[in-house]
Amino acid sequence: MFSRTLTIERIDAAGLAHRCPIAQIDNFAMRNFTNDAVFDDTLPIADGLLEVGLRVPLDRLSAAMEDWFRRKSYLAPGERLRVTEVAPAQAPTQP
């Protein structure tokens, strides 16, 4: 079911990438906050890492996560969120 691994990073105003804490990713992934069934196939696994199923559209996920992170003040003005799919052979392991 969770066949893809994504990195979730906060890009600061200087352009530096920082892995998003698992607590923030998990907060988004809870359906009672998103109310969108398409995000049911998400599983936070570590800071900056999210496993997702094939039916999760990355463009929608990225937009929804960035909106949620801004509403929760996880992103400051001038920061943005970067969601990137990791190739299977390059998928990082949990720390």
Element layout with pairings:
Blueprint: E1 4-11, E2 17-19, H1 22-29, H2 31-34, E3 42-46, E4 49-52, H3 58-71, E5 80-86
Antiparallel strand pairs: 1-2, 1-4, 1-5, 3-4
In short:
The chain is an alpha+beta fold. It has 3 helices and 5 strands; from the N terminus they run ββααββαβ.
Descriptive account of the structure:
The chain is α+β, with helices and mostly antiparallel strands and 95 residues long. It has one domain. 27% of the residues lie in helices and 28% in strands. Strands 1, 2, 3, 4 and 5 form a five-stranded antiparallel sheet that branches. The chain is globular and about 35 Å long. The model has no long low-confidence stretch (mean pLDDT 87).
Largest sheet: 5 strands, antiparallel
How many strand elements? Answer: 5
Q: Tell me the number of structural domains.
A: 1
Helix-strand string? EEHHEEHE
Query: Total helix count?
Result: 3
Derived structural class: alpha+beta
* Rg calc: 12 Å
Report mean pLDDT, rounded to a whole number. 87
Q: State the share of residues found in helices, binned by percent.
A: 25-40%
Which strand-content bin applies to the residues?
25-35%
C-alpha end-to-end distance: 22 Å
Unreliable spans: none
What spatial form do the alpha-carbon principal axes imply? globular
Which features would summarize this protein structure in a list?
five-stranded antiparallel sheet; alpha+beta; 95 residues; 28% strand
